[in-house]
Amino acid sequence: MARLHQPPARGRPGRYVADPRRQEQLFGPVPTAQEALAPFTDELRTAQHR
Description:
Radius of gyration: 17 Å
Shape: elongated
Region (Disordered): 1-21
Order of helices and strands: HH
Structural class: mainly alpha
Number of helices: 2
Distance between the termini: 55 Å
Number of strands: 0
């Protein structure tokens, strides 16, 4: 029986599995997860909860 699902590639935490060099040429440096989420966490920190 053929395997229909393969588990994701296991890379080192915090590292990219794909080679982002071409994307970096087109879109600029690839942000880290922390950099990408910072605007959202800042907004949550300053939100007025009722």
